[in-house]
Specification:
Layout: E1 16-17, E2 20-21, H1 23-44, H2 49-74, H3 78-87, H4 98-101
Antiparallel strand pairs: 1-2
Helix pairs in contact: 1-2
Transmembrane segments: 24-44, 50-72
Pfam family, one: DUF4133
InterPro entries: DUF4133
Length: 103
């Protein structure tokens, strides 16, 4: 009797959920949790229920659209590359050659 093995074709592919790839899924999840906490805080402090909903849905729509825009603009690794490039110094200044003499 021979067994039939199915090959997983998704190895080394990034996770994708409705067009969001890689780290953007976690950004969206964190944004939704923050919006939920914001709604609870506003509701408990006594702000009008409809004002809370309008504020949370408005900011939620803006956050979701912003995260999708980042995902489409930078792709899977582009945002990490951009932030790494921004951390590079413009120039490196050495006051002496001492460090190079001992190499």
């Amino acid at each position: 009797m021979s067994s039939v093995y199915h090959i997983n074709k998704g190895i080394n592919k990034s996770i994708e959920f409705r067009g969001l790839r890689a780290q953007y899924i976690s950004y969206l999840a964190a944004a939704l949790v923050i919006l939920l906490i914001l709604f609870v805080i506003l509701y408990v402090t006594g702000v009008n229920r409809y004002a809370c909903l309008v504020l949370v849905f408005g900011s939620g729509t803006a956050l979701v659209m912003g995260i999708f825009r980042l995902s489409y603009k930078y792709g899977q690794y582009g945002l990490m590359k951009r932030s790494a490039k921004r951390r590079l110094p413009d120039y490196v200044k050495f006051r002496s050659r001492k460090i190079f003499m001992h190499l």
